[in-house]
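FW: tagging you since you asked about this chain on Friday. Here's the raw sequence from the shared folder, copied in full. Didn't touch anything.
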Amino acid sequence: MSIVRNFKNYLQDRILDDQKYQSDFVQSEWFETRIDDYNLIDLIGFGSFGRVYRAECKRFAKKECAIKCISKRQAFCSDKILNEIYIHIRLSHPNILKLFTVLEDREIVYLVTELCQGRSLANLIQEKVQNSSLNLGNSFISSKVPVLPFSMIAAIILQLCDALDYLHRNSIVHRDINLNNILLIEKYALNANVRIKLADFGLAIDFNSNRNYENTDFGSTICGTPGFISPEVLHQKSNVSSQSDIFSLGSVIYACVSGQSPKNCTVCIDRLYEDRISMVSPLCAPI
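HL: got it, structure written out here
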């Protein structure tokens, strides 16, 4: 079976797992609306490995937070959960989502983090594209104006660079920099005053740790987001480094300007596996 077909199967499996997980999570007998000192208020997001709820802490005057609920029943999750906790709990940076504490029961691990009132960068760009009547399916964008204002793009990228610099100086590579993992702190600061938080460290690698990633499902599984994943991560090569995150950073910049993520399926994947970096559609015109 070809490498490209393997990657396509991986993507399809993630979609099927996500659909099954959503159904299981709602119907499961162990789902609760109250966890320890926290009351779950409403669902604010979900993905292949869990759901995220807005919650309030009874102990601290009902202070709001976010709780990521991850099922232990998925085999790949065990390594991912341990890795995310091990790395994330030690991080402290103004542009990295703060992990406060970790709770667990027989079926679920709960990651309690600070709450971002805004949306993800992916949701913001999607909304801007729809409002601007841009067609994401085309290779060229029908407008010469960037989807987001340049002042806002600059603010987002500078903060993301600060977060990555902090991680890389601490020998940590995120490996999954994408629009969904960049969160806006406020709802309405959609200009140069925008503030962001980098989230989701389940696929990160700490090169200073004693963990042997190669001997785990986590270390041997293709990971990342199509269009944002670097060639060496996609190849599962041993030379993954901070440059892998820089590659993904470039994809984020492209998406902020063009309104589309550089993930145009088969051709892009083929080129990645051939180590060709020209994987994105060109912008329509100089801006």
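FW: The chain has a mean pLDDT of 76.
HL: agreed, and The two ends are 43 Å apart (CA to CA).
FW: great, closing this out.
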